[in-house]
Amino acid sequence: MLAAVPVPPSRAMSKWSVGRKPSRTLGLLLLVILSYLVLRRLDWYNLVPAWLRHRQSGLQANGQHFMLEDSTFWIFGGSVHYFRVPKEYWKDRLLKMKACGLNTLTTYVPWNLHEPERGKFDFSGNLDLEAFVLMAEEIGLWVILRPGPYICSEIDLGGLPSWLLQDSGMRLRTTYKGFTEAVDLYFDHLMSRVVPLQYKHGGPIIAVQVENEYGSYNRDPAYMPYIKKALEDRGIVELLLTSDNKDGLQKGVMDGVLATINLQSQHELQLLTNFLLSVQRVQPKMVMEYWTGWFDSWGGPHNILDSSDYDAVLTEAGDYTAKYFKLRSFFGSISGIPLPPQPDLLPKIAYEPLSLNFYLSLWDALQYMEEPVNSEKPVNMENLPINNGNGQSFGYTLYETTIASSGVLSGLVRDRGQVFVNTVSIGFLDYEKKKIVIPLIQGYTRLRILVENRGRVNYGDNIDDQRKGLIGNIYLNDSPLKKFRIYSLDMKKSFFQRFSVDKWSPIPAVPTFPAFFLGVLSISLSPFDTFMKLEGWEKGVVFINGQNLGRYWNIGPQETLYLPGAWLDQGINQVIVFEEKMAGPVIQFTETPHLGRNQYLD
Questions:
Q1: Which residue in 211, 213, 238, 316 is the catalytic one?
Q2: Which class would CATH give 55-291?
Q3: 440: closest CA among 408, 478, 400?
Q4: What is the pLDDT of residues 66-93, one digit of tens each?
Q5: Handedness of CA 224, 230, 232, 233 (dihedral sign)
Q6: Is 213 a catalytic residue?
Q7: In terms of CATH, what superfamily is 370-491?
Q8: CB-side exposure of 356: number of CA atoms within 13 Å?
């Protein structure tokens, strides 16, 4: 490797060949190589000057081709999002990319996960971006980074942190001061980690995307130039890209940045590449996203495409699909070199059915939670004075007040509020049902509304309007209710630590709902991947050893939840289920996922 590195004349070491013994010259060469390896191992590679690494031009758009240094370069890319895959499985997924014939990894960077509280950053464990990028390099993949700040990516609020919404005047994805100040602080921290990983600094990042699909949003003409400058001012020196779909491509192109396209069909490909030709003239044509599937909605079918488990090339569990083998065959036919062997699949197992033998009703659990917020009026989830002033991001919020009469209850609930009179459920308020009748009561009665945040919209014009909980006043017979006690049920790991073993009771013959259920999955050998099936349960959330496995709902389409073996321990594993309405007899396990009735999309 070092023999191919040209040395600038001002730093040429011609004296090595004058009056020196070959053994000493060889020793110095070995010392240089050893120093390189040590620095690389200790992540100090950026200390090695750029001239020693022969990385000057980087990825460039040259006519209709990409060039990497002096060679034509074809980008065969695929996406793996590190924050969606257990860290223990990163290598497995990346090796499968490489074995498919791909040479480039693309990944988003989720701001909301990396800065869950304003000014507090998390790049540890499953969020270790630098470790993921360096692992891609070790496997032989280049990297295109998509840092946002908005990333879409079917993630809550498009990856923007919910605490931004504490500002009632917030205008996301614009040059509104409250937004740009937050972006600047985030980019200050993020780019200090990214800059050393760039190609020209010896790393694998060959290109960086400027925001994401802004053309279809297009609220502020100054915004994209601001993001471009924010990246460059912090040391981003690689090729910059934009990425837009058919709805935004016309407005998403900007000077000095290569436009790329997102699409779903060959028909769109022809239309969009023709447009690129008209605005960019002779430039490389690049598809940043070719959608192999489509998302599902609760109560609908499982959508798949002939062309997450989103009908992707690899399944959520890392299994191969027919699309994988077609792509491997295609890339193998044009690469000119043999592809690496396909890694073996990770084994799956169907554990014995699990009984959850212990129980804690929500109403009994309230005494073990943090003190509720007392407020004259309802407060939306994001503006609750909790979590060091950052509000609540995810989970449920319980609102309690006292009423003295029956009548019609109404108000704006986001997203779904289960209404209780004392501990008796009387129905739901949501986007479709905005009123509910309170039955005849006597005297003062406790009214409770348990509101579930079902996820903030990640794409579209209404991302500013994604506050959750009770939004504004809640009315009884058109009179606003007052004096609320508000409990945060964010269900993070720290939330469950309050429920020590002595707080749980055996399940009664007739449980009171909502409730938490506790069981133990005992594994005698090394854990394997599996899929949980909650047949007989109605709606809730599952937690394994403190990890949020996800929601389940008997309206489907999804019938199983993927449980990575990496999240299980040999021995005792804690299983907690929060169920809103009806518990099943056991939790079942299966070796294969059940994602619902298939619907083929055109």
A1: 213
A2: alpha beta
A3: 408
A4: 999 989 999 999 999 999 999 999 999 9
A5: positive
A6: yes
A7: Galactose-binding domain-like (2.60.120.260)
A8: 25
